[in-house]
Design brief:
This protein is an alpha+beta fold. The chain is 24% helix and 28% strand. It starts with 6 loop residues before the first strand and ends in a 16-residue tail after the last helix. The structure holds flavin-adenine dinucleotide (FAD).
Amino acid sequence: MSTDPQYDVIVAGLGAMGSAAALQLARRGVQVLGLDRHTPPHALGSSHGDSRIIREAYFEHPIYVPIVQRAFDLWRELEEMSGTSLLKETGGLMIGGPGSELVAGARRSAEAHGLAHALLSAGEVHARFPALHPDDGMVAVWEPRAGILFPEACISATLAEARRHGAALGLDEPVQRWAVEAGHVRVTTPRAEYRARRLIIAAGAWVRSLLPGLDLPVRIERQVLHWFEAARHAEWFAPERCPVHIWQFDGRRFFYGFADVGNGVKVAFHHDGELTTVQNVRREVAPGEVEATRAVLRRFMPAADGPLRTSAVCVYTNTHDGHFWIDHHPRHPQVLVASACSGHGFKFAPAIGEILADIVQNMPPRFDLQLFRSRC
Ligand SMILES: Cc1cc2nc3c(=O)[nH]c(=O)nc-3n(C[C@H](O)[C@H](O)[C@H](O)COP(=O)(O)OP(=O)(O)OC[C@H]3O[C@@H](n4cnc5c(N)ncnc54)[C@H](O)[C@@H]3O)c2cc1C
């Protein structure tokens, strides 16, 4: 039997990051096999729940700005390629105290990169966007380019395009183990053994199970999403009148929300969730969790405090510093890891796919990736 690799690259995990890597590689004519334990898009990992925020004035660090700008272009390109609507620009508001991490960080990125933005007082926010009631003394960074991505549609379109460009996709086919042998990577699933020159591990919250023997600095955090019906003035929650919004309040607490794009007004806390594992995550939502969200709605968005439509549970895969992990395996240069996107990675997915494809093809990095180095 030949021991030549059958594929140039195997991608383990076809959620946001892995599907994007598979598409980028397939478009470049690389022989790629993508494998997933489920059939993405699915609701068991980190990429479900109807909507994701995309924003440019990146409060987490200015280094992300050129990457998200590239992602905007690639999402638009994917829309054209696939004939699907994936991104709705609504503008965005980062609301909090003037010195808060959120507001000060968004301003820093906007100023460093010369992005269109404005600083609004609490009164100006409420006058322009009547659904939102910031506390007196809060301010907001308004950025016109932010908006909503539709994650399930994004992943479906990415996988369909990857397949159309020649990627082989093994769905409901989990990677059980892998090993580096004679410079190649052997990947075992319940259906077959495959060999490839490179392996990309993009298993999201399952990353630990594919990296045995590494002391991974990642923690899985349970997050709950809620969709409410407007109690009054449903028109205030139309996308034209309700930009994506993130709030920092009471010190370091965060929540965010979206316009009603068909399923109700979606809101959620960012972080403050219980630590868990993807295998044992509590999928049911307790009444107290709905109440805690209502308390925030009553304070900042009282017109959204209507009947609960539904809730969902999702997981973050966090590094200790909140930055991503995109790097080679510390011991095996044939293996790349793209994971731990710490609750803010979706918007970057096509750009991360491109970064991974560049690394595979030994191209010089287009971005400063220093924040994303392996921390093992
Ligand atoms: C509630 C919530 C809200 C968020 N909001 C935002 C937001 O507004 N904006 C934003 O930019 N980001 C946001 N994020 C973060 C973003 O959604 C994630 O960073 C991103 O979706 C992670 O993508 P991923 O590819 O790493 O993981 P996933 O998309 O979960 O993909 C991992 C895939 O690996 C597969 N897999 C696992 N094990 C194996 C195996 N052994 N073999 C084969 N396949 C395997 C899984 O089935 C899964 O399909 C949010 C996340 C959550 C949970």
